[in-house]
Write a structure and sequence with these properties.
Argininosuccinate synthetase, chain A, domain 2; 5-stranded antiparallel beta sheet; 409 residues; 2 domains; single chain
Length: 409
């Protein structure tokens, strides 16, 4: 047992086999009191079994909390204001959930007087980094226990042997080797490992849990309208909805139309490449809609600068730096850009595709008087373009003249 003794630890607990083994391992290895925390982030699982399991292990303080609204309002929506995509494709569904779980763990640790927190992330993945960077940012002196980096339970056989030796119930479907691992929340589901590890092999249809096959989607398009207020969606087809309810509605629409599938090989923060299969039905619709309303409400240079900042912002979230000063700084700039991003976007959903078909806003910068091909009645003097072009061409002309004299580029 490394380091000084631990008196009380708050464990991020799902109630599954791995975290149940971790719970008992903490009790037997550190001989400390374990407090369990189970977050409902919309993963779609019954959480009361986690309470019963924790009680079976003698846990006295059990926290099971519905954080769906907080998750969407305070983490997902701020991220979508940035149109964040990691490596141009990934909508960061797992990444954005970790800081909320870590934040609540630290709050509980302070409330119950715990001197440590623990998580079930492995030593190969990104989640260990995301959890622990968040812990340290919120409570610099917290003790962190990462069992997968400490114990000798290095195989599923050893894990099952430990469970049997300590009377940990094992569901019948958990005794065999799972074909792949799944992480899910209200924003997305992520599947990886085992049968998905070879990036040359297409994923089996059984991998997809949140979307139907685009080929099986209706032959008629679904048309919807999303209303935005200062960058956040607030209503679908005129019906005002809470953040979590709105995302759930978009998920249902995306599922029915086969929208939001992604088969991705990404670069993990720890240095290796990994293959994941993601489903983000509602988020895929939301991204298209948000970019649609921004297209008429953001100034050109503001929009272009925002697009330049986005990859860095997305990388910070992916790598676990949600609570870093640089992410907060970027968020302030992004949020300031959203002051005028209000209005309605109309979309068409059809067999895996999302198309923007209309956008309107009281803050629209789109001027029909200026862009018309008909008589603009003097709104735009086309002769002005001549000087504009000549000034922008000046450096090109000077460079070309220098080139004739043997000058370098």
């Amino acid at each position: 047992m490394p380091g000084k003794p631990v008196n009380k630890v708050v464990l991020a607990y799902s109630g599954g086999l791995d975290t149940s083994v971790i719970l008992r391992w903490l009790q037997t290895t550190y001989r400390c009191e374990v407090v369990t925390f189970t977050a409902d982030l919309g993963q779609g699982e019954e959480l009361e079994p986690a309470r019963r399991k924790a009680e079976m292990f003698g846990v006295r303080q059990i926290f099971i909390e519905d954080l769906r609204e907080t998750f969407v309002a305070d983490f997902v929506f701020p991220m979508f204001r940035a149109n964040a995509l990691y490596e141009g494709q990934y909508l960061l569904g797992t990444s954005i959930a970790r800081p909320l779980i870590a934040q609540r763990q630290i709050e509980i640790a302070e409330a119950v007087g715990a001197d440590a927190v623990a998580h079930g992330a492995t030593g190969k993945g990104n989640d260990q980094v995301r959890f622990e960077l968040s812990y340290y940012a919120l409570k610099p002196d917290i003790r962190i226990i990462a069992p997968w980096r400490e114990w000798d339970l290095t195989s599923r056989t050893k894990l099952l042997q430990f469970a049997e030796a300590h009377q940990i119930p094992i569901a019948r479907d958990k005794r065999g080797e799972a074909p792949f691992s799944v992480d899910a929340n209200l924003l997305h589901s992520s599947s990886e490992g085992k049968i998905l590890e070879d990036p040359a092999v297409a994923p089996d249809e059984m991998v997809y849990q949140r979307t139907i096959r685009p080929e099986d989607a209706p032959d008629r398009a679904t048309e919807i309208a999303i209303d935005f207020m200062r960058g956040d969606p607030v209503a679908i087809d005129g019906e005002a909805l809470s953040p979590a309810a709105l995302l759930a509605r978009l998920n249902a629409l995306g599922r029915a139309n086969g929208i939001g599938r992604l088969d991705l090989v990404e670069n993990r923060f720890v240095g290796m490449k990994s293959r994941g299969v993601y489903e983000t039905p509602g988020g895929t619709i939301l991204l298209a809609a948000h970019r649609g309303i921004e297209s008429i409400t953001l100034d050109r240079e503001a929009a272009h600068l925002k697009d330049q900042l986005m990859p860095r912002y997305a990388e910070l979230i992916y790598c676990g730096f949600w609570f870093s000063p640089e992410r907060r700084m970027l968020q302030a700039a992004i949020d300031a850009s959203q002051n005028s991003v209000s209005g309605r976007v109309r979309l068409k959903l059809y067999k895996g595709n999302v198309s923007v078909t209309g956008r309107e806003s009281p803050n629209s910068l789109y001027s029909m008087k200026h862009v018309t091909f008909e008589d603009d009645q003097g709104a735009y003097d086309q002769i002005d373009a001549q000087g504009f072009i000549r000034l922008n061409a000046l450096r090109l002309r000077l460079g070309a003249l220098a080139g004739r004299r043997g000058g370098a580029l």
